[in-house]
Amino acid sequence: MIVMMHTAVGWHVELEFMEDDQHTRAAAMVRLPDGSEVRGHGHASRHRVDANQPRVGEEVAGARALNELAMQLLTKAHEDIDAASGRTSHPIHV
């Protein structure tokens, strides 16, 4: 049996948060091996009667930023497939 080994590729993802008492904003960025960067943003708001739990706001805003990042990566992959094949490919779904 022959096993093919492939070079491992790493992506570096960064998340940054900006917060006040009511809002959390998140910015996500992934740097791809070709040097290009894709960015996504997320937001969370705390209702005034809810307890102040910054970690929860970070989780919600961070998840939304990563979701936007994921959608942009799917769009980029779809465009790359089309460019390489010279035709319109089927949409890529999550």
Automatic annotation (TrEMBL):
SUPFAM superfamilies found in the cross-reference section: Rv2632c-like
Record-linked InterPro entries: Rv2632c-like (IPR015057), Rv2632c-like_sf (IPR038070)
Region (Disordered): 36-55
Pfam families: Rv2632c-like
Superkingdom per UniProt: Bacteria
Gene3D superfamilies: Rv1738
Stated name of the protein: DUF1876 domain-containing protein
